[in-house]
Amino acid sequence: MPEAASAPTAPRGTIGDSEFDRDTALSLREPGVYDIDLSAGWTIISAVNGGYLLAVLGRALADALPHGDPFTISAHYLTASQPGPAVVRTDVVRTGRTLSTGQASLLQYDDQGKEIERIRVLASYGDLGTLPDDVRTTAKPPAIPPMDHCFGPETASDIRLPSGGPAPVDGSSAIADRLMLRLDPSTLGWALGQPSGKGEMRAWFGLADGRDPDPLSLLLAVDALPPTAFEIGISGWVPTVELTVHVRCRPAPGPLRVSITTRNLAGGFLEEDAEVWDSADRLVAQSRQLARVRLG
Amino acid sequence: MPEAASAPTAPRGTIGDSEFDRDTALSLREPGVYDIDLSAGWTIISAVNGGYLLAVLGRALADALPHGDPFTISAHYLTASQPGPAVVRTDVVRTGRTLSTGQASLLQYDDQGKEIERIRVLASYGDLGTLPDDVRTTAKPPAIPPMDHCFGPETASDIRLPSGGPAPVDGSSAIADRLMLRLDPSTLGWALGQPSGKGEMRAWFGLADGRDPDPLSLLLAVDALPPTAFEIGISGWVPTVELTVHVRCRPAPGPLRVSITTRNLAGGFLEEDAEVWDSADRLVAQSRQLARVRLG
C-alpha cells in the first residue's frame, strides 16, 4: 500500500505509519545493503540530526540481524551528512541465541559519485520482549514541570535566541516541525540570555504527529534537545564525535521525558548523558555522547 | 633491548617498561595486523579481564592511526577470550587533522586454527597534548578514605567472599597480583555478607609495579574493580556486552581514584558508569558499560 502509507490518512501517526517511519524507511538493494533518501525534514539549520541518522542505521541493523531491538548501539560520526541519497552497508559480526552484533556504515556520494562514509556503528541487538520484568533501580525520573508549564518551539523562539548560535528550537529548523518538544523552563535560561551555568537540559519529547515511542525512536530522542552547552553559556556548534545508546525497555505509549546532563567540559570536549523515561516511569534508554565544542 | 626490557631491572615499573607494557606489546605481522600472546597474568578466575583486552586493542589502534591517544573507544564483547595467541586486525576508517577513527578486531583460534572474533571496537583518536587547558566541570572527585583506610586484595579475601560468585579480589585471580587496588570499605559490604544494596564501588587504583597511569592504562582502570552487582547483592558473573571509554585528559603521575555506579538493573542487564580521577584532581576518564547479569 505505497500510496496509502504515505498519505496523511489519520490525524495521528502510528508506529509503522508516521513521518518518522517514512523518513527512516530503507529499500533493500542487495542483502545487507540499503538505499535511503535522507529527509530534509530532520535538519537543524543545514545539518541532519544525529539521532535521526542513528535511527536510520538502527533500522537497517534491525533488518539485517536476527534480533530486532538495539540493546546497545555505538556510533562514531565521521563527516556531516546532507539531505539526499545515502546507502547503508551492514555486516553481521556475530549471531547468538539472545544477542547478535552487527556493524553498519552510512555513506553518501561526492561529486564524482564516490562513496564518503558519514557514520560507522557497532551494535548488539536482542529482543526486549523476552527480558524478565525485574527492575531494581535507584534512578529517579527527572522532575519536569507539567507539559503546559513547559515551552514549545514557537514560544521559545519568541523569547530570544542566543546570538551567534544555532537555533534548534527556532522555526527555521525543519526538525522543530517534526517533534513535540516542551522544554523545562528551568533549563531554558539560555533563551533569555541568562544561562544557568549548569549543564542540564530537560524536556517532554514526542513525535509531532503523535506516533508513540518505540526502540528506534528512542535513538532519536537522546539527541533531539538543544545542547547542554547552551546552558553552560556556549552558543557555538557542538558536533557529536561518538554517541552510544542503551535501550533498556520497550517504551510505553505516551510522551517521554528526556534529561540530559553535562558534568565535564574540558579541553574543548564535553560529554552529554541522556536518560529517557516513559509514561510508566520506566528508564527506557540511557545514552552518552562525546561532543566537540566549536566556539561560535 | 628485548632481554633488558623484559627483566625486572628496576624496582618500579615505568611507562614503556612494566608488566602492563610487556603484556600489551604487539608484534607487527603486516600493515595493520598484529600478533600478541594474551597474558594469563590478567585473568579473573579463568576469564581474561576486559579492560586489559581493551588496552591491547587500544595500543594496536594507537600504532595503526596517525593519532596516539584514544579519545573515545567503544568495544562490543562477542566471545570470551583465553590466555594465549591472538591477532588484532585494524582498519583505518578516517584520518582527519585533529581526530582519526579506526576499527579493530581481536581474534583467537579454534581447534582447527580458524579465527574466532572475541571483541570488535570502533574508536576515535586524537592528541591529548594539544588540547586547551580550559576545564569547566561540576563533577567532584569521589570521597574515598585515605589509602591506608582501604582494603587490599589480601585483606579483602581474608574477610569473606560471597558464596558462588567470582572472586575478583581473591588471591586466586592472577590480576590481583598486577594491580594496586585499595577498596573503599563503604563499598565492601558484599565481602562481609552485607551488601549495601547500592550499586557503588570505589577504589584507589594503580599498577602493582608502580608504573604511572597513561591513556592506555585508563582503559584497564575502568574495568578492574569488583562488579557493582556484588553490592546490589548479586554474586553471579556479570559479563560485559559493550564498554565505551572517553579519555578526557592525560593522567598525572600517582594513584588514580575510580568510582563506579550502577543506577538501573532491569531485565537482566545493568549499566556500570565509571569515573577515573588522577592525583591532580582531574577527571581523566569516563566510561559506561552494559553488562548482563548471570545469576550464580
Automatic annotation (TrEMBL), chains A, B:
<feature type="domain" description="Acyl-CoA thioesterase-like N-terminal HotDog">
    <location>
        <begin position="39"/>
        <end position="125"/>
    </location>
</feature>
<feature type="domain" description="Acyl-CoA thioesterase-like C-terminal">
    <location>
        <begin position="167"/>
        <end position="293"/>
    </location>
</feature>
<dbReference type="InterPro" id="IPR029069">
    <property type="entry name" value="HotDog_dom_sf"/>
</dbReference>
<protein>
    <submittedName>
        <fullName>Thioesterase family protein</fullName>
    </submittedName>
</protein>
<dbReference type="InterPro" id="IPR052389">
    <property type="entry name" value="Sec_Metab_Biosynth-Assoc"/>
</dbReference>
<dbReference type="InterPro" id="IPR049450">
    <property type="entry name" value="ACOT8-like_C"/>
</dbReference>
<dbReference type="InterPro" id="IPR042171">
    <property type="entry name" value="Acyl-CoA_hotdog"/>
</dbReference>
<dbReference type="Pfam" id="PF13622">
    <property type="entry name" value="4HBT_3"/>
</dbReference>
<dbReference type="Pfam" id="PF20789">
    <property type="entry name" value="4HBT_3C"/>
</dbReference>
<dbReference type="InterPro" id="IPR049449">
    <property type="entry name" value="TesB_ACOT8-like_N"/>
</dbReference>
<feature type="region of interest" description="Disordered">
    <location>
        <begin position="1"/>
        <end position="21"/>
    </location>
</feature>
